[in-house]
Amino acid sequence: MKIRPTLLALILILALTACTQPTAAPSAPPPPSPTDRATFTPTPVPPTETATPSPTATVTASPTPTLTPTATFTPRPQHPPLITFTMEQNGVPSIYAIAPDGSGLTQLAADVSLYNYNGPLWSPDGQNIAFLSGASWDTGRVNILNYATGETRQVDFDRVSYFTWSPDGQQIAFTTYTEEDALFYPIILVSLSDLRLNKLYDMPTTQIITSLDWSPQGQSILGRWHAHRGWITCPCLFSLSGEYITIDNRGLDVLDASWSPTGEQFVFTGNYYLEEEKYQTWLVSADGTQGQLIIEDTYIESIDWSPDGSMLVYSNYSYWREGVGVSYESQLSGVYVYFLDTGTTIEIVPLEDFALSPVFSPDSAYLVYLTATQDVENTGYALNVYSFATGTSTQIVPAYVSNDPPTWRP
Q1: Cis (ω within 30 of 0) for the bond into 22?
Q2: Where would I find the H helices in 20-154?
Q3: Which of 122-131, 156-165, 255-264, 390-399 has the least mean pLDDT?
Q4: What is the pLDDT of residue 41?
Q5: Three-state secondary structure call for residue 40
Q6: Strand pairing of 197-201 and 207-214?
Q7: Under a CB-based contact definition with an 8 Å cutoff, are residues 278 and 257 in contact?
Q8: Beta-carbon neighbour count of residue 228 at 10 Å?
Q9: What domains can be seen in the chain, in order of their start residue?
Q10: 87-110: per-residue pLDDT in tens?
């Protein structure tokens, strides 16, 4: 088919006109207000809601990034399975490593803090371990142990509480208590190469940040936030660009929050503090705008994802159901696994065993968890490993383990 000259000229003119249209430069979003919230609607499949703007600023939640095929998680353990934990003997708390079969118990670091709320935490590449030292919670400092050389370096900053590794293992973010009267909790980044400090967030003195979990995609840090002397804690997303948004916690006092292995979702769990036997666990989109209620009527204080993203493991406490003021010995806690595809739950350890802090191994073949000894006040906890292949648990350290969460080498 031939194109007439006049028609061809008209096409050329239109094309040149379209190419010369100016493109408007994107405007930078205004800084967020600390009081803004991203909200979500309950199950089954809630519509996305826009964060409510304040009179002075608007929070725009970033859309969930589209993952490329290379971002799909496949469990590939880089090292033989290895568990790290804190144990106190002769009054000296130390970090140890042990294989899942109970062999190769090795001391890695001595005279560490008993306030390692994260446990001894491995870098994502499995080369370094971060832990706290200090005799009390207000003297805690971050230490970085190189597993291959045994060299330990200390970050020159006191009163560290919670910390987390960046996905590339080159930075650590931590919260700190710096103002005794005002309870002032900023987030500070430390570079692994030179231990240089950089304050990421400087929160108002009426706001407190507890617990941190860096997104696997590296774009934001998930924390728990609450007002000074307030009862209710809610999830909060802190971006590396200096913005942060609080997530609608549905009125729950949030006890734990954790990213999925791909960073596309996070889970948080909590209870209604003033209402007995009312507990909920929510699955939330990465930007905090969509949520789904997945577990009800189960008091969960710690929760962990399986590395393949198909399961959640948690410890289920029951002492809250027995009323306020129950004795320590009457507390009960078991370990349970929740399957995200079917919504079903199986019991791994019964409540009577008082099991705590379950964590999946990197290949999802094992769980490590703690159980209270008969004289827990004096002999601490035992370290146990559950095998999914055999469906059985083995006690590999019988006593003197602290209640800091055990961790696995990636």
Answers
A1: no
A2: none
A3: 156-165
A4: 39
A5: coil
A6: unpaired
A7: no
A8: 13
A9: 112-273 (2.120.10.30)
A10: 988 888 999 999 999 999 999 998
